[in-house]
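Suppose you are handed a protein chain with no further information: no name, no annotation, nothing but its sequence. What can you learn? This example shows the usual starting point.
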Amino acid sequence: MTKADIVDRIAEGTGLTKIETKAVVEGFMSTVKDAMEEGRRIELRGFGVFEVEHRAPRTGRNPQTNEPVPIDERYEPVFRPSNKFEKAVDEKYKEERDENEVEEAS
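A reasonable first move is to predict its three-dimensional structure. Written in structure tokens, the prediction is:
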């Protein structure tokens, strides 16, 4: 799903124009990005948490030559879905799997 797809769905569901919706979506994305650049944690109850995690330096391996490659430390944005979000996704996929199994058995 692309940003344009998200804009289309929100516009259809809210009655806002696509231009208005695009501005809101871009504003949200910009706010999340700016807050994470400042090292802030964004918590959206029932959805999840966006935060920045530190990754320590380590040694990796080049898969073609198997030679060691140094990997510098870095700070990485991460998203952790809420339990409610995870449960909803899990239940939907299990429901679809069960429906497919019933169709295949018929």
